[in-house]
Amino acid sequence: MKKILLFSLILAWIGFACSTPKGISYFEDIDKNNQGFFDKPENFSPVKIKVDDELSIVVSARDPQAVAGFNLPMVSSTSSSMPDVKIGRTVGQSQTLQTYIVDADGSINMPGLGRVYVEGKTTEEITAYVTLKLEEYVKDPIVTVRLMNFSVSVLGQVNSPGKYEFKSQYVTVLDAITAARDLTTHGVRENVLVIRRDNKGDTQYYRVDLTSSEMFSSSHFYLQQGDVVYVTPNKEKQRDSGSGTQKSFNLTVITTAVSYIFSIIVIVLNTN
């Protein structure tokens, strides 16, 4: 009977040590909810242009000469002649396409069109507006607008914190975490903080639960230009920060106590 009791205690200890804690996996309730495909949330807010953003605007048409005067000139990679443009993508070995930098007044200076106000607009809205203006001069113009410096910062309990740039402007919290090489085991997955500053300069805070499939329908799942994603440390990590030596001492005490208890049980069994 005593041997059975001892065996049960050992099994219980092993089961406790090997149990899988909750809050470690992503989307833990996705099978339970079984929601299938997830669309963008109804209140999804597309990225809006801010001051100091970098834009690429390329105008084309069937007749290239007809739109030549509406594009920024090609320049060498070592100089730029216009104050509100920036050297962008390299074309060939020495020529580059210039990009626009949004001025403090929220506008850019486009050749042939003059000042174009872009702050607070999406790239789709800028495309529609520029296309409409160009139709006064060019037949069937094609306008391509891209945000070139979309970036977010990822801080806290991730394996590689830092500032990351993306070619796409449809960037999710998961994209940012992937760029930062995933959360550490000390990151709180149920309470990831998204810090956002809007065009008015106001700072807003949002919470995202990575363990819930409901995150896909959250209006904060898609990030905005300049967002900060902060992964808070769990309680164990917080204790470690202030008492690493104390934790090591506690672990030693617990291990010694467990070994002592099992030794006593073995002695009692052998003496009866």
What does this structure look like?
The chain is α+β, with helices and mostly antiparallel strands. 29% of the residues lie in helices and 26% in strands. Helix 6 packs across helix 7 (244-271).
Question: Outline of this structure?
Answer:
The chain contains seven helices and twelve strands. The protein has helices spanning 2-18, 30-33, 64-67, 123-134, 173-179, 235-242, 244-271; strands at 54-60, 75-76, 85-91, 95-101, 107-110, 114-117, 142-147, 151-156, 162-165, 187-197, 203-208, 228-233. Strand 5 and strand 6 form a beta hairpin.
Topology:
Layout: H1 2-18, H2 30-33, E1 54-60, H3 64-67, E2 75-76, E3 85-91, E4 95-101, E5 107-110, E6 114-117, H4 123-134, E7 142-147, E8 151-156, E9 162-165, H5 173-179, E10 187-197, E11 203-208, E12 228-233, H6 235-242, H7 244-271
Parallel strand pairs: 8-12
Antiparallel strand pairs: 1-4, 1-7, 2-4, 3-4, 5-6, 8-9, 10-11, 10-12
Helix pairs in contact: 6-7
Which features does this protein show?
272 residues, Outer membrane lipoprotein wza fold like, 5-stranded mixed beta sheet, 7 helices, 29% helix
Distance N terminus to C terminus?
A: 12 Å
Low-confidence stretches: 79-83
Beta-strand level of the residues, as a percent range? Answer: 25-35%
DSSP strand tally: 12
Quote the average pLDDT.
Answer: 78
- Per CATH, the architecture of the domain at 54-147 is 2-Layer Sandwich
Query: Class by helix and strand content?
Result: alpha+beta
Largest β sheet strand count, sense and barrel closure: 5 strands, antiparallel
Count of helical segments?
Answer: 7
The CATH C-level name of the domain at 54-147 is Alpha Beta
Cα Rg: 29 Å
The helix/strand series, from N terminus to C terminus, equals HHEHEEEEEHEEEHEEEHH
Helix content: 25-40%
The outline comes out as elongated
Q: And the CATH topology of the domain at 54-147?
A: wza like fold
